[in-house]
Amino acid sequence: PPESPPHRAAPRHPPQPQAQAQDQVVAQPHV
Asked: Residue 22's pLDDT band (boundaries 50, 70, 90)?
């Protein structure tokens, strides 16, 4: 099942960029 490994790697990549984007959005309004 080659669709099993790619599905697990996709959800792991978005959580990283989202954490950085949320930090900047929270830091802007906080300032």
From this structure: low
1-31 as b/e: b if 16+ CB within 10 A: eeeeeeeeeeeeeeeeeeeeeeeeeeeeeee
Rounded to a whole number of angstroms, the distance between the first and last alpha carbons of the chain is 48
Predicted TM-score (pTM) of the model is 0.15
Entry field: residues in the chain: 31
The rounded distance, in Å, linking the Cα atoms of 12 and 30 is: 28
